[in-house]
Amino acid sequence: MEGGISTKDGLPGMVKTTDQSTSKRSTNMERIVVFNDHANIAAAFQQLGYPLDQGDLLEYLAEGRFLVEAHTFVPIDPRDPSGRDALVEDLWNIGYLVHSKIGTIAGDSYRCDFDVELTLEMMRTAEIVKPDIIVLLSGDKDFVPAILELRRRGIRVEIAGFPGHNAAREVMLKGSGFIDLDRYRQQRWEALETLPESPTQASTVKAALEAGPL
Predict the structure, then answer these.
(1) Where is this region: Disordered (predicted)?
(2) Domains of the chain (ranges plus CATH)?
(3) What is the mean pLDDT of each run of 10 residues along the chain (214 residues)?
(4) pTM score of the predicted model
(5) Which residue in 49, 162, 26 sits closest to 171, CA to CA?
(6) Cα 208–chain centre separation
C-alpha cells in the first residue's frame, strides 16, 4: 500500500514508517482520513464470529489512497480501567490516533458514548485537514447529520460496515458510498487459501487474523 502507513513483511498488522517519497506520491492520490467507532465495529465482527485484524482492515480501507490520519474511539470499562491497555497500545502501534474515555456504570454493564467527540473531530478535520475522503467505520444513524454536513462541504463520506447488521439503512443511504465489510472478510479469507502452507507465511497470517485484538 502506498501512503504514510505500510505493512511489514507483507503480513497483516501495520507498522508506522517514514518514507521520504511519501509527499511526492501523495500529490497524485486522494487524501483520506479514517474514523473508527471501535465499539460499533468490533462488536459487529465479534457477533458475526469474524476475526478482526485492525491493521489489516485499516490498510484495506486506505488501499490506493494517501492515508493522512486514522482516528479510533475506544470506550473503557470503569470497572476495569486498565483492562484495555494492551489494545490501546496495539492501536497506537498500528498508527491510529487513539481517543479513549472511561464510561459510566449502567446496571450490570456500562455506557460510553463517543457521538459528540467523534462528530467534533470529523468537523475539525474538515476545517483543518480538508481531506478528499472521510471513511467512517460505524453504522450508527446518529452520525447522519454530520455525514450530510461533511458532504455539503465537498468531502466524500464513505461508510464501512456490515449491511443489515451494524449499518443502519439510513446511514448507508446518506453516505457518498458504502464499503461492505462482509466483502472485505470474504476477500481476505479467500486470499489465505492461496498462500503456501508454511509456518512463516500462511500460518502466521491466519493466526494474526484469528487473534486480532477487539
Answers:
(1) 1-24
(2) 5-210 (3.40.50.1010)
(3) 35 42 65 95 89 93 97 90 91 96 80 89 98 95 95 97 84 94 85 54 50 50
(4) 0.77
(5) 162
(6) 17
